[in-house]
Amino acid sequence: MSYRPARKSGVARVAVATAAATVLIASLTAAPANAVSSDPNLFCDLPGQRLAISPISGLKEGEPVTWRSTVKGTKPTTFTGEYIGKLDNALGTDAAGKPRDLLLVKLDGDIVNGTSGSLAAGVWAGASGSPVYDADGALLGAVSYGFSSLPDNVAGVTPAAYMKAIGALPASKTLSPSQTQTVERMADEKSTARRSSTLRRIEPVRVTIGTSASDLDDATDRLSERIPGFRGAAASGLAVPGGENRAADYPIVVGGNIAMSYGYGAVTEASVGTVTAICGTEVFAYGHPGSGNSALSASIHGASAARIVPDSAGSYKMVSAIGRVKGKLLDDRTAGIRGKLGVPAPTIEIRTTSAYGTLKNTTVTKVSEPGFIPGAAYAQMGNEAVRMLDNVQKGSARVEWTITYQRANGATATLKNVNRYASPSELPYYVGDGVANDVAALQSNPFEDVRILSVNVLTRFEADYRAAAFSGVQMLKSGKWVTVDSGSVLKAARGGSYSFRTVLAPAPGAKKVTEYAPFTVTVPKDVRSTYQVELSAPDADDEFGGEGPDPRSFAQFVAGLDDNYRSDVITRNMWYTSTAGPRKAGEATIVAPTVLIGNGASVFLRFEVPATR
Question: Which of these, 209, 215, 237, 235, lies nearest to 323 by C-alpha position?
């Protein structure tokens, strides 16, 4: 048997490592080429979008400000507040060593501070990117940082000039005792911190549609542990439940919602924040990084808000829906994100066709970031199990998948595999295991760069838990099935064919029906005296260990993937000595109609033929 990449045991769920854990933040030494104004006093000077930058040096404590954010639907609301000062060098320095300050504003509004009978939300997750303006309407910057996990109306604002340049800023920073005291003095409130406090970015709201955020993260983490060299991608932000993707054409407007996604459709993984500014077709938002990695490919969408949810552990914007694609991400930098309206990011399709009884339908996820493909495939398969069976626990499934990919030389190839899955309590966590592993393995192979072009899955679900143990073999004699014990010696004729079937006894908790898998034994005509057959059920350890030497080429690597572990296959090994002298051997498989409990059971049969004259 050829090599198969080793897999670790104990997997009820699969996973892919989150990019957030290993963020690569690209430094920037100069402003990127874009449509913003070359005038340092202007953010944008295009007709109808002219926007001045508020001079930081001219700001005075107590000066009124306004800020815009969306609390329900897609229409922004204007709020008031006041400028209360700045923290010198709170955002570190840029690549040239120039100090970067953080502006401080005290925000006002019924939602922020609460009213009689309502809870204060403070500055909520999803407000990051909310534009703040001075009394003349010039842009101060974007709401982006906070100082407490409790509801708090003091926010840090990333200056507009830094966002305009997409500068290199830290995602978080521990404030010194003197900076902590400055925040307390300016806010006229005491911090709970004794010696220092942490500058926390105000997270965009993370929305996962079609799966739970925690399950998707679990999947992301475990695949990286199982597949050497694989690293996946997940959107950052505060996780909240998502609804159905209605694909409405929500607008991208200043102060409105903006979503950044690595995939959308049947499974949508997106973070939702607020638009700070628009200049031409360029959109600026967040005021801090999303994942902080501009190398990841993402789409941008409009989004609709249901409400702002006050929460003592951190208030957040509840997102009701992610809209159609409006463009693509250009930069995910430490000063914010920059996108371009119009042309969307290229995507690949994960297409799953599911059948149950007479029902059959197809769902599609479009993925822009390759690192998100395995996690999305895994999640989509789990969702299909829940959707088709209307059951989050018990069930069985036969899954076929085809992965089309492009090799480094431009050639297109496919990997096809099939397997069965069954569980009395966790089918959604198993059913996407094989396809996710194969995608991740192809992407992380050590021989050449591989680009996934499409993933297609065909699944037939059953409501019952169908699993069995290989418990014996029966032979058809005179029209009746007779049990044959392991080690039996059977009289046979050269060239004769004999009908058998494996006996599959239901596993504990499975549907109480004994099932069978038929097979035929044909005795070779050139056998000298004895034809030996051994039937072996899969062993649980076979799924997680590689056999044979490590591959030395991409072809060997793919051959190992193609030699897919099957939970429904009994291996039949045959050997004999021929009349001409050489010893001969062969191997075949018997496909069972159920998942086989990996007990490693085996049955040995010995066929004796008459002596040659």
Answer: 209
Q: Contact 461/356 with Cβ under 8 angstroms?
A: yes
Residues in CB range of 531: below 8 A, 6 or more apart? 492, 523, 524, 574, 576, 606, 607, 609
User: Do 405 and 433 form a contact (C-beta atoms < 8 A)?
Assistant: no
Q: Which of 99, 179, 120, 118 is nearest to 145 (CA)?
A: 179
For the chain, the straight-line distance linking the first and the last C-alpha, in angstroms and rounded, comes to: 38
Q: How many CB atoms lie within 10 A of CB 329?
A: 25
For residues 470 and 596, is the Cβ–Cβ distance under 8 A?
A: yes
Element (H, E) at 331: strand 316-333
Helix (H) or strand (E) holding 218: helix 213-226
SS3 (DSSP) at 517: strand
Q: Are 521 and 533 in contact (CB under 8 A)?
A: yes
- Top pLDDT among 381 and 224 is at 381
**Residue 480: other Cβ atoms inside 10 A:** 8
- Tell me the three state secondary structure of residue 607: strand
In the block, residue with structure tokens 């998948």: 401
Place of tokens 């963020």: 23
The dihedral built from the CA positions of residue 337, 343, 347 and 353, taken in this order, carries a sign that is positive
Closest by Cα among 237, 337, 253 to 287:
337
For helices 213-226 and 373-389, the axis angle rounded to 10 degrees is 130
Residues β-bridged to residue 398: 420, 460
pLDDT in tens, 523-578: 999 999 999 999 999 876 655 555 567 899 999 999 999 888 899 999 999 999 99
Question: Rounded to an integer, what distance in angstroms lies between the CA atom of residue 431 and that of residue 445?
Answer: 23
- Residue 338 identity: R
Residue 73 gets the label, from left (phi > 0), alpha (psi -120 to 50) or beta, of left
497: phi then psi, degrees, rounded to nearest 5: -115, 140
* Residue 290 and residue 171 in contact, taking contact as beta carbons nearer than 8 Å: no
Integer Cα distance of 401 and 378 in angstroms: 12
- Residue 550's pLDDT is 85
Which structure tokens are listed for 267? Answer: 């499974």
Determine phi and psi for 281, rounding to 5 degrees: -100, 5
Q: CA-CA-CA-CA torsion for 432, 433, 434, 435, nearest 10 degrees?
A: 50
Hey, how many other C-beta atoms are within 10 angstroms of the C-beta on 483? 11
Q: How far apart are CA 6 and CA 549, in angstroms?
A: 11
Rounded distance between C-alpha atoms, residue 48 and residue 50, angstroms: 6
Measured distance CA(123)–CA(202) in Å, rounded: 8
Cα separation of 189 and 200, whole Å?
18
| Largest distance between two CA atoms of the chain | 113
Cα–Cα distance, 13 to 425 (Å, whole number): 13
Distance of CA 95 to the CA centre of its chain: 33
CA distances for 101 relative to 83, 90, 175, 258, angstroms? 14, 5, 12, 26
For residues 526 and 579, the answer to whether their CB atoms sit within 8 Å is yes
Tens-digit pLDDT profile for residues 131-167: 999 999 999 999 998 887 778 888 899 999 999 987 4
Q: How many CB atoms are located within 10 Å of the residue 545 CB? A: 13
pTM score: 0.81
Cβ atoms within 10 Å, residue 293: 20
